Amino acid sequence: DFVANVSHELRTPLTVIRGTVESMIDQSDRLPAPFARGLQRMEEQTLRMQTLIDDLLTLTRLESPSHQITRNPINVPELLRSIVEEALLIPHESRPDLGLVIKTEKGLIGGEKEIRSAFTNLIENALKYCEAEHAITVSWKDDGQGVRLDVSDTGPGIPAEYLPRLTERFYRVDAGRGPGGTGLGLAIVKHVLARHDAEFQITSHVGKGSCFSCRFPEERVASIPQPKRP
Question: Are residues 96 and 191 in the same domain?
Answer without folding.
Answer: yes
